[in-house]
Amino acid sequence: MNQDQLSIAVVSGDFDKVLAAMVISLGAAAMDMEVKLFFSFWSLAALRDPKKKAHGKNFVSKMFGIMLPKGKDKLKLSNMNMGGMGPKMIKSIMKKHGVLSLEEMFKQAGEFGIEITICEMSMDLMGIKKEELIDYPNLRFAGAVTFAGDAGESSAQLFI
Q: Any stretches that span the bilayer, and where are they (predicted)?
């Protein structure tokens, strides 16, 4: 039976797409829906804490670590990135319009009880370790089967 629940698979690591996932999540949570986010593949870059380092990585994992953005503040736009100016422009416009920053959205999501599941397979493939991820109150590690189960119980599912 479907519950008043929203499940979102967040796969893109683009700023605007992670932003969209968070805006939709916060809106649903404000309407008293249970929200479950499943971060996989490129979106894991948004969950990396720029202040944390992981030790004991192999060469390929170190290379992924260098190539992937390190945190929400380093994400690129999917279109019109303009050498990094695009995200700065969007963030400036968001601030002028009183829109929460991505960092603030994650904080509010934690306060709303929005659950974030991190795909363990994606972590393994991309060489990302738990100790380099953000601190978030409702964080869990699982796989696609867990997301499929959550999505099957949800009244709405999205793929971003």
A: none
- What is the number of structural domains in the chain? 1
φ and ψ of 9, to 5 deg: -90, 115
Residue 120 belongs to domain spanning: 3-159
Per-residue pLDDT tens over the stretch 64-73: 888 888 999 9
Whole-structure pTM value = 0.92
Cα distances (Å, whole numbers) of residue 146 to 16, 62, 65, 143, 152: 26, 28, 26, 6, 10
**CA angle 42–34–106, rounded 5-degree value:** 45
- Rounded-to-5 percentages of helix, strand, coil across the chain: 50, 20, 30
15-30 and 85-96 helices, crossing angle to 10°: 30
CATH number of the domain at 154, please: 3.40.1260.10
List the helix and strand counts (H, then E) for the chain.
6, 5
Helix axes 102-112, 15-30, angle to 10 degrees: 30
